Amino acid sequence: MTLSLPTTSDLRTPLGNFAFHVSFETSGRRVPPDPFGSFAEVSGLEATMEHKVIKEGGNNYGTVMRVGPVSFATVILKRGIVEADNLWDWWSLFAGSEDANAFPGYVNRCDVLIGLLGVKDPVATGDPPKTAAEIRLVWRLRNAMPVKFRAGDLNAKGNDIAIEELHLVHEGLKLERPQ
Predict the structure, then answer these.
(1) How is domain 20-46+73-176 classified at the CATH fold level?
(2) I want to staple 31 with a disulfide (CB 3.0 to 4.6 A). Which of 26, 73, 137, 166 is the partner?
């Protein structure tokens, strides 16, 4: 599946000052239909490889470096704007709830797609001059699982938003180009 923006204005459409779009690919798993959200900040798109140092006999000038295991940082989606309860339902599948399908298994995981938006070039496309967003590249978090859900403070005087943070762990990070 390739990530694309919704064709009409709906709850999944990022607001104008957002520079990315977050989508979830369920691939027929038991994840709630279309879990989605728009977030003001995404952090943790990071992979680290632990290198292995080999000391060769007779090689007195330095060491040989070999590839080691790769680990991935926890991705944190901050200040989410969403009216549906799909993200909470997805979290509940892992944390335990009234749902009989609630268990932290692969069947409840999904890929999370984070698309970076850019402005279409009206000269290249032949379109009339206007500002239109298109997805330039996509980060795919393979087999993502929510590990922390933090709601905003409930304060009638404040203007906090419903989802303050959603933390995701995953098993792979891939950079894709939209088709």
Answers:
(1) Pnp Oxidase; Chain A (2.30.110)
(2) 26
